[in-house]
Write a structure and sequence with these properties.
The protein is α+β, with helices and mostly antiparallel strands and 319 residues long. It has 3 helices and 16 strands. It has helices spanning 8-37, 61-70, 76-80; strands at 96-102, 114-115, 133-136, 139-146, 160-161, 164-166, 176-184, 190-198, 206-211, 219-226, 231-238, 245-252, 255-260, 263-269, 278-286, 306-318. The protein is globular and about 50 Å long.
Length: 319
């Protein structure tokens, strides 16, 4: 019996097309959960944070150690040339052991971080896109601007698309000291949050050690969130966030000490201070008008681009 002649070139072309379609289907499957989070009542209690879609693959301790050892160490030259004019601390300090750091000397976000993607829970006026997160000139940059490429992904035409990063692929701990040196460009309706978020991704609790409501850059807030009803303990301090500053928190059992440029500015002693592993997250976010009595929304004065710049990040373990 004669078999039909096989055109191997045609088969190869078809195979490549099938592979392309399978890859495309996989990308859509990955993306769709983020679309489902927009405006859903199930995520309405989330407080100025990433979409519920964000999940992270964690590396083994051995792999994390190997990669950390392979990263270039900070040198005297790299430290004295810090964009903010203040060098990143290196090594242990009294009572604390260095556990995590990044001075963003590369050309892209490294494996220690992962970027947000999708609609923030409870905020139909915001959208996170990894392309709005860059590393250049020794700084991490998170830029807010209207991005037509995200309209198809549920971002409105007037939405200021922003970004966020989490240390969850590499670093989470219970208790510790955190320092983040940054500045934030002016722009009504674009807020920031530098926070500790549960490694389990089950909220609350949450510790924001620098955040604002997008009204101006003259004040920063620190907020402890806990309990099913999102009970909040908030403190505030006057500071010009458009200039470089180092904001931080010392998190120990039942106690939070908030710091600004190396000085303590507020202390919270509360039995509801978290005692579970938490990640370090950095983000900016825009808000829909009328959705909140606290957060402001963009207006005619908001610049076309609003940038958060981070010079360095250091975290220490307690004890």
């Amino acid at each position: 019996m004669l078999l039909p002649r096989v055109d191997h070139k045609a088969v190869s072309r078809i195979s490549r097309q099938v592979v392309f379609l399978l890859v495309l289907a996989g990308m859509l499957t990955w993306a769709m959960p983020a679309l489902a989070t927009g405006g859903s009542a199930g995520h309405a209690v989330r407080h100025r944070h990433r979409s519920a879609k964000v999940r992270h693959r964690r590396r083994s301790a051995a792999v994390r150690h190997a990669v950390k050892q392979s990263r270039p160490k900070a040198t005297a030259a790299s430290l004295t040339s810090a964009p903010s004019g203040v060098a990143m601390p290196v090594g242990n300090i009294p009572g604390w052991h260095e556990a995590f750091s990044d001075d963003f000397t590369g050309s892209k976000l490294d494996w220690q971080w992962t970027s947000y993607w999708g609609v923030p829970g409870g905020d139909p006026g915001g959208f996170f896109d990894p392309t709005h997160v860059t590393v250049s000139g020794g700084q991490l940059g998170i830029s807010a601007y209207k991005d037509p490429s995200d309209i198809a992904w549920d971002a409105g035409a007037n939405t200021y698309v922003t970004g966020g990063v989490s240390s969850s692929p590499s670093f989470a701990q219970t208790y510790g000291k955190y320092l983040v040196r940054f500045k934030f460009g002016a722009g009504v309706g674009i807020s920031h949050a530098i926070l500790l978020w549960p490694q389990s991704n089950t909220w609350p609790p949450e510790i924001d050690f620098s955040e604002d409501n997008g009204s101006n850059r003259k004040t920063t807030y620190a907020t402890l969130h806990y309990g099913a009803n999102n009970t909040q303990v908030q403190r505030s301090v006057a500071v010009n966030l458009t200039q470089w500053h180092t904001l931080g928190v010392e998190w120990t059992p039942g106690r939070l000490v908030y710091t600004l440029d190396g000085k303590n500015w507020a202390t919270v002693a509360n039995a509801n201070v978290p005692s579970t592993p938490m990640n370090l997250d950095i983000q900016t976010q825009s808000w829909a008008c009328g959705t909140s009595t606290w957060e402001q929304c963009p207006n005619a004065t908001t610049p076309s681009h609003v940038n958060l710049s981070v010079d360095w990040v250091v975290a220490y373990s307690w004890g």
